[in-house]
## 1
Amino acid sequence: MVMFEKLTEVGAQFRLPGKFYAYDTIKNGNINSTFKVTYRDGETLKSYIVQKINTNVFHNPEEIMENIDHVTEHIRERYPNEVSLHFHHTAEGKNYLYDEDGSFWRVMNYVDSITFDTCDDLAVISATGEAFGHFQMQLSDFDGSILHETIPDFHNTHKRLDKLFDDVAANKLGRNADCEDEIEYLSSVRYKAGQLSERYANGDFPIRVTHNDTKSNNVLFDRITKRPIVVIDLDTVMPGMAMYDFGDAVRFICNTAAEDEPDVRRVYFDTSKFRAFCKGYLGEVKHALTKEEIDSLVLAAFSITVELASRFLDDYLTGDTYFKVNYPGHNLIRTRCQLQLAKDILRKSDELKWIVEESIKEG
Ligand code: GN1
Ligand code: MG
C-alpha cells in the first residue's frame, strides 16, 4: 500500500476530521517513522503528527503509551499553562492502533514550531538546557515506580559494553576486521565508561525519572522568539540517572558536526556551547541535584558518548538491524564520529568540570 493510502486509513481510524490534504515525512529519528499529515476541514487546514512505532525496538508499545499518558498527565496537572502533547483516540477509546499488518500507529497534535539538529546560536543552546532542566524539574515529584521499563537497561553502559564485547568475540559477520582500532579504544575505556552505571546499580545516585533521549531536536521551539515550547519524544521516559540526560544532551548539541559526520576531523566538543548549555540546564536544576550528581556530569557526557558508539558499533557488527541506516557502513561512520567526540570530551575534562563549577556559582 502506498504511504498516502496507509496514512489516510490510519487517520480515519483516529477519526481525524476533514479530508486528507497532504503529508510530509519527518526525517529526524533513527527508530520510528514520523509523518506530518494535514487535513482540510472546510476552509481550514489542520496538521497532526502520525507515527509508526518500531516494534523491533519497542517490544511492548502499549506500555510506552501508558507511560506517556502518566507523564503528560502529571505535567498537565502541575503546569496547566504550558503546551503539552495530546494523543488522539480511536473509536475503541485507545490512543494507538494496530493495523492489519501488525504495525503500531499513534497520532498526536502538531505544534507549529522549529527544531534544531546542529545549532551555533548560543542563546538557543542555553534555552535547550533550560528546556531539559525544566523537564527534569517537572518530573522531580513523579512516582517513577508506576512506569514500565520499556527498554530494560537502556542506559546501562556497563551492560551495553559487555554485549558489544560478546558480539566482538562472536564476530558473526566477520566485520571485526573493519573496526580494529575502534574495538581497541572501546576496550581501553570500558571500565571508565561503565563506572557510573555500575555505581547507579549499587545505589550511589538517586533514581530520577529521566527522558533518556535528550537530543536538541527533541525540543520544539517557537519560530519567532526561539524560546522552547515543549520537550517531545517521551518514548524512553523511564527511571534513570539525571546526569545521563545532561550527558546525552551535550553529546549531541556540543558536537561541532552532525552525529554521523563522516569526516572526523570536523568533530569536536565545543566548550562555548557547553558553557551555554550548562547555564540553561543548571539554572533550572542545580538545587535539585546532589553533589555526587553534579560531580559526575562530565563523566556522564563521556560515558554516554562511549555507550552510543558501542551501540552503533554493535549494530554494525550484528547486521544493522536496530538503527535505520542510509548507506552500508553508516553505523561504523556513526561509531567513529562518537568516538572522536568521546576522546575530545576526555581531553577537555578538566576545563569542562571547571565550566560546570563556574555555572553553578554564577546562576
Ligand atoms: C535513537 O530515533 P531517535 O533519534 O529518537 C535511540 C537513542 C539514540 C539516538 C541516536 C529508542 O533515538 O537512544 O541516542 O537514536 N533511541 C532508541 O541518534 O534506541
Ligand atoms: Mg527517541
## 2
Amino acid sequence: MKLLENKVALITGASRGIGEAIALKFAQQGANIAFTYLSSEQRAKEQEDKLNALGIKAKAYKSDAGNYAAAEQLTTDVMKDFGAIDICVNNAGISRDNLLLRLTEEQWDEVIQANLKSVYNLTKQVIKPMMKARSGSIINMSSVVGVQGNAGQSSYAASKAGVIGFTKSIALELGSRNIRCNAIAPGFIETDMTSYLKDGGAEKWFSQIPLARFGKPEEIADVALFLASDMSAYVTGQVINACGGMTT
Ligand code: NAP
C-alpha cells in the first residue's frame, strides 16, 4: 500500500526545484497531483507528462501564488477537476536578496507577496473543502533563514518567519477539525534559487553545515511525504528543520 494512495495533493511552484521533487515523490506514493507554476510553461508541461506517466492524474495550472483572486480560482478549478484537496503544499517562493540599506520597497513587497501572502491566499481557500471532509494536511515551506535570520535576506527571513507564525496559528485553529498544518525549514538545497552560492566554490559554505554538503530537493520531499501522510497523524503546528544540522 502506497502512503498517499488516491489522495489529491495541490502543490504550488512545482515546475522546478523542491516543488518538482515533492510532486514526483507524492505521485510515486499514489497521489493525484494538481500543481502550479508562474512562468515555466514548458517545464510545467514536461512535469505534467512525467507525472501522468506514473499512472496517476496530474495537471498543471498557471497561477500566481501572490494573487488572492488567483488562489480562489485555482481552488475552484482543482475541486472541479479532482473532486477533493487532501494535501496542500505552499511551496512557491522567491528571494530578492539585498542589504537593508539597498533593499527597495518594491523588492520587499515582492518577496512578502510571493512567500507569505501566498500562504494566506491558498490556505484560506483549501481549508473549506478540508473542513467539509474533516481531514487535511497543509505543509508550508519556510526556511532556516526564517528560523535564525541572515544578513542580506531581511525580506526573505521576515516572510519565512511569518510562515512559521501562520503555520502554528492555523494548527491551533483547525486541529479540532482534523486539519494538520506544519512547516518545513530547509537549509541550503541544490536548486535554481541557490545556484549563485556555487560561484567561487560551494565548499566555502560547508563549514556552516554539520553534514558538510547542500541538501537535495528529494530530501526535502521526503520530509514533505512524512507530513502529508498518516505517518505524521499526531504531528501538527511543528517546524521541521531539514538543514543538515545548521540550526542545531
Ligand atoms: P526554485 O527552484 O526557484 O523554484 C521556485 C518555484 O516556485 C518554481 O516552480 C516557480 O515557478 C514557482 N514560483 C515562484 N513564484 C511563484 C508565484 N508567484 N506563483 C506561482 N509559482 C511561483 O525554488 P526552490 O529552491 O525550489 O524553493 C522552493 C521553496 O523552498 C521556496 O518557498 C523557497 O523559499 C524554499 N526554500 C528553498 C531553499 C533552497 O535552498 N533552495 C531553502 C529554504 C527554503 P516558475 O518555474 O514558473 O518560475
